[in-house]
Amino acid sequence: MALTLKRCAVLLAVLSAFMVWYSCSSGPAAPEPGTPGFFWNAAKGGWEAGDWTATAEHLDDVLSKDADEYGPRALPWALVLTSGMTDGYMEAADAYQKGVKANKAGAEPLRREMVRYHDAASRLILQFADKFESFNKLNLDSVPLAFAFPKGSAAEAPTLLTVAMGSAPTAALIDSALKQTLERNMILAAAKAVGCADDPAKAGQIFASPDAKVPRATFQLAMANHLFAMSEMFAATKLDDSEKREILCKRAQDALKSVPESPDTKELTDKIAAAIKQLPKKS
Fold first, then answer.
1. Domain containing residue 269
2. Which terminus of the chain faces fewer neighbouring Cβ atoms within 10 Å, N or C?
């Protein structure tokens, strides 16, 4: 896979840091470039810098080279990362879709961004579904959280609020709003993963614990919720693909099978059943 400029910059920064560390340390040698350990550290560097795309690519490199050793740590991280990015693009697309309806005369630039974000979210949803299948094969009672809680703010991007009213922003504001929205949703995705959807501060404390972990059932329920939320991207009012929506709904149902029954699982189960019932009947 060709390296993006941002990814090259992250890799060079990580390599430089390793060289400085190695020259000043008498400890064990740093992982050599191209090894799973090297890409693992590169993923940490990308995550720290808020470069979500580079982080995802590095985690893919890790899993392609050594899924057995790194899988229990890399897959949960990749799922949180992918779900956060997906939610961010979906939130941005929703704002632009509202803007298109609010400003029919000037809808075209808003529609272009909406389509761009829908496409990005759609690609990420497929990646999430594949990674979740791999995660399901792991025999884990608790899920390791081998990454730091995301930095930044969970506040909504003000620009998207004006976009939803039909105002087309400048290119600079478009990029800034997307960055803020991805950052916000990364924080929310990490909080949901540990059962603290409404309390990011509490979630941050869980991640700050040494050897941080979360019960498998808690993580599994969060992923089931993500699968169902992702299915809504394929509703008739958006990408209108009932087949993909049904697949995601059923995968969310399957994810719930290993989660103990609770008010939260019942609520989600009812939502999924209602969504499937509304799908067009197959001929």
1. 34-258+265-275
2. C
203 inside domain: yes
Where b means 16+ CB within 10 Å and e means fewer, 248-283 reads bbebbbebbeebeeeebbeebbebbeebbeeeeeee
The closest of 73, 70, 77, 75 to 186, measured between CA atoms, is 77
Angstrom distance (rounded) from CA 80 to CA 87: 10
Q: Which region, left, alpha or beta, applies to residue 150 given φ > 0 means left and ψ of -120 to 50 means alpha? A: beta
Burial status of residue 1 (CB atoms within 10 A of its CB: 0-12, 13-18, 19 or more): exposed
In a domain, 20, yes or no: no
Give me the DSSP letters along 37-69.
Answer: HHHHHHHHHHHHHT-HHHHHHHHHHHHHHHHHH
- Residues of 110-124 as b/e, b for ≥16 C-beta within 10 angstroms? beebbebbbebbbeb
Report the C-alpha gap between 226 and 79 in whole angstroms. Answer: 10
What's the pLDDT tens digit per position in 96-151? 999 999 999 999 999 999 999 999 999 999 999 999 999 999 999 999 999 999 99
> Looking at per-residue confidence, does 52 or 27 come out higher?
52
Q: pTM score > 0.85 for this model?
A: yes
Q: Is 214 helix (H, G, I), strand (E, B) or coil?
A: strand
Token output for 276: 């499937």
Q: Is residue 22 part of a domain?
A: no
What pLDDT shows up at residue 19?
44
The predicted structure's pLDDT at residue 278:
93
Question: In angstroms, rounded to a whole number, what is the distance separating the alpha carbons of residues 186 and 189?
Answer: 5
C-alpha separations of 240 from 94, 175, 212 in Å: 14, 27, 40
Q: How many domains does the structure of the chain reveal?
A: 1
Closest to 128 (Cα-Cα) out of 40, 255, 257: 255
